[in-house]
Design brief:
six-stranded mixed beta sheet; binds flavin-adenine dinucleotide; alpha+beta; single chain; 17 strands; six-stranded antiparallel beta sheet; FAD/NAD(P)-binding domain; 13 helices; 17% strand; Elongation Factor Tu (Ef-tu), domain 3
Length: 445
């Protein structure tokens, strides 16, 4: 039996996948295009290069979902986490690292394994046979991107993300907001109440537009195309085009009646749409933005009903190649139409170094199990890794799928705990306690 696993891309996901698969007995070839072919963001030819910030974010495995992912990867002999620990810098509760020695150590550790080889070459076409993991990240080369799009259909591979902020349902004030689809459209009661609406009067709308105008914005990275598609203009750009533009666009107040004040016609309405099957997350429709994160929370908490909103993720628009994974990937991370190919990392529609490495860890283990004839199930959705894979391979709404950070909104509820802000600490501890037990069980096979 051919025990060679080919991995395209030696970033966060590809490096972790290679490490896991090699330790489970496979021969691994990493195909990495750098340094021969560069990207606008990478600076070196090293594996595991951090392209921007040097932080793996919170290291708190009891109260933070990303910290829990750290914990799970450590428990699974993760290369990225053990190397991060070695090059850790003081950063409060965050896991920040010295980036160049970190990437050098990732590279050295992989090259020291007798069953790992690195071929420094760009792969330009989807492989037709063998065992493969594609982990080419947000900046997948143009030729390979075109080949993937030819297989998946152009609509199923995006080259930009346009992320609207996502809010935890239990942080929304339902004494101000209400559930209703515009013109009560829909066949079922569920469809007729699919949207959550937040009303504004004229003064609130005018103040909101002023806040948008004044907010600090981020620029596109150098080399990143700034050509927005008209369908995903940032809201602040729409507001710049005229004070009424949003009221005739994503904030139009038509076809909606506020049950809290049925006689008052709202001047504008912000709509939120359910973002996952669990109904724990809602995205603010049409609110993709290039505002800085601090400015986003200030501006969005001006929306009636969202004064105390907690955000599962904030908005953004970036160059980002990612698949419509809910329609394309199975729970084993295989491309349904070409099951000899797995995808891992940011290209699967997760977001961030840690999430990408975690998806690499899973892909490496799942590939090794399949190739050595040992069945390995997908980890349960009660773990951070399992919650992410469950989300991208079917839990998310496919029509509006956008990249996602790990967050507790992706976890199934622990019954019997208080909802809302006051119960949050106990709830998060219950999630992380449960996840640790379930992850250990999954690791035992
Ligand atoms: C500009 C920018 C800034 C970012 N900043 C942050 C941040 O601050 N914090 C954060 O958590 N996340 C950040 N991200 C997201 C970040 O890219 C991912 O979190 C993470 O690096 C993705 O890991 P990955 O392994 O999927 O992709 P990468 O780490 O990008 O690795 C993919 C690898 O594939 C190689 N490759 C691409 N195409 C081919 C090909 N055809 N053949 C062979 N090799 C190929 C690339 O050279 C690269 O080494 C940023 C992304 C971008 C684009």
């Amino acid at each position: 039996m051919d025990k060679t696993l080919h991995i395209i891309g030696g970033g966060m996901a590809g490096s972790e996948a290679a490490w896991q698969a090699a330790h489970l007995g496979l021969d691994v070839v990493i195909h990495e295009m750098r340094p021969k072919v560069g990207t606008f963001a990478h600076q070196t030819g090293l594996l595991g290069e951090m392209v921007c910030s040097n932080s793996f974010r919170s290291d708190d495995s009891e109260q933070n979902a990303v910290g829990l992912l750290h914990w799970e990867m450590r428990a699974a002999n993760g290369l990225i986490m053990q190397t991060a620990q070695k090059h850790r810098l003081p950063a409060g509760g965050a896991l920040a690292v010295d980036r160049d020695p970190f990437a050098q150590s990732v590279t050295d550790a992989l090259l020291a394994l007798p069953n790992v080889r690195v071929d420094y070459e760009e792969i330009t076409e989807l492989p037709r046979d063998g065992h493969w993991i594609i982990a080419t990240g947000p900046l997948t080369s143009t030729a390979l991107g075109a080949s993937i799009a030819a297989e998946t259909g152009a609509d199923a591979l995006a080259f930009f993300d346009a992320i609207a902020p996502i809010v935890y349902f239990d942080s929304i004030d339902m004494s101000k907001a209400w559930m209703q689809s515009r013109y009560d459209k829909g066949e079922t009661e569920e469809e007729r109440t699919a949207y959550l609406n937040c009303p504004m009067d004229k003064a609130q709308y005018e103040a909101f537009i002023d806040a948008l105008d004044a907010a600090e914005k981020t620029e596109f990275h150098e080399g990143e195309t700034a050509g927005y598609f008209d369908g995903c203009l940032p809201i602040e750009v729409m507001a710049e085009r005229g004070r009424e533009t949003l009221r005739f666009g994503p904030m139009k107040p038509v076809g909606l009646t506020n049950p809290h004040q049925p006689d008052v016609k709202p001047y504008a309405v912000v709509q939120l749409r359910r973002d996952n099957k669990l109904g724990t997350l809602y995205n603010i429709v049409g609110f993709q933005t290039k505002m800085k994160y601090g400015a986003q929370t200030d501006v969005f908490r001006r929306i009636p009903g969202l004064e105390n909103a907690s955000f599962a993720r904030l908005g953004g628009i970036h160059r980002n190649t990612f698949l419509n994974s809910p329609t394309l990937l199975d729970g084993q991370m295989r491309l349904r139409s070409q099951p000899h190919i797995r995808f891992a990392g940011q290209i699967t529609g997760v977001e961030g170094y840690v999430e990408s490495a975690a998806m690499g860890l899973l892909a490496g283990r799942l590939a090794a199990a399949e190739m050595t004839g040992t069945a390995l199930s997908t980890p349960p959705a009660t773990t951070a890794s399992g919650a992410l894979i469950t989300h991208i391979s079917g839990g998310a709404e496919a029509k509006t799928f956008q990249p996602m950070n790990v967050n507790f909104g992706l976890f199934p509820a622990v019954e019997g705990l208080k909802s809302g802000r006051r119960g949050r600490k106990d709830r998060y501890k219950a999630y992380t306690d449960r996840a640790k037990v379930d992850w250990q069980d999954w690791l035992k096979g």
